[in-house]
Design a protein that fits this description.
mainly alpha, 8 helices, about 0% strand, elongated
């Protein structure tokens, strides 16, 4: 593949790192004090309560609502781990798959919010492209230590 300035593999690394920065920003912009008190999960519960698909309400009520503090920590630190993992390229395929799944969960929960839909679809698309093009072959710890060769 001929490209300008960087190789194709390096451009894919740029895409992967950019996605990692996006996840890091998702973590950074949260009001951690309020979030870890359960504020983010309370907000999501309000969204799930009004959701047009009953299975979303049932799933949220069964899995997330009973454990608001735990789920707040899981969500926040999953976003942080995804961001850091993608930026440094460590366990990259795992991070890309986990990020894809998390974006799909966010997408389904926020199906009525066009702004959120666009962000989550774009992040899921980047995850898929980065996964299927082996974006960890350049500028990653995975390539340095020989993981996923």
């Amino acid at each position: 593949m001929q490209t300008i300035w960087l190789s194709g593999a390096e451009w894919l690394a740029v895409l992967r790192i950019g996605l990692g920065l996006w996840w890091l920003e998702s973590w950074r912009h949260k009001d951690k004090k309020e979030w870890f008190k359960g504020g983010g999960i309370k907000w999501a519960a309000g969204v799930a309560d009004k959701h047009r698909w009953p299975f979303v309400r049932r799933t949220f009520d069964g899995l997330v609502k009973p454990h608001p503090r735990l789920m707040a920590y899981v969500v926040a630190y999953a976003e942080l781990a995804l961001g850091l993992g993608l930026i440094v390229g460590f366990l990259t395929p795992v991070a890309l798959i986990a990020g894809f799944v998390l974006n799909l969960i966010y997408f389904v929960l926020m199906i009525h919010d066009w702004a959120e839909l666009g962000q989550n679809l774009m992040m899921a698309l980047i995850s898929a492209v980065a996964l299927f093009t082996v974006s960890w072959q350049s500028w990653s710890l995975d390539s340095v230590i020989g993981l996923f060769v």
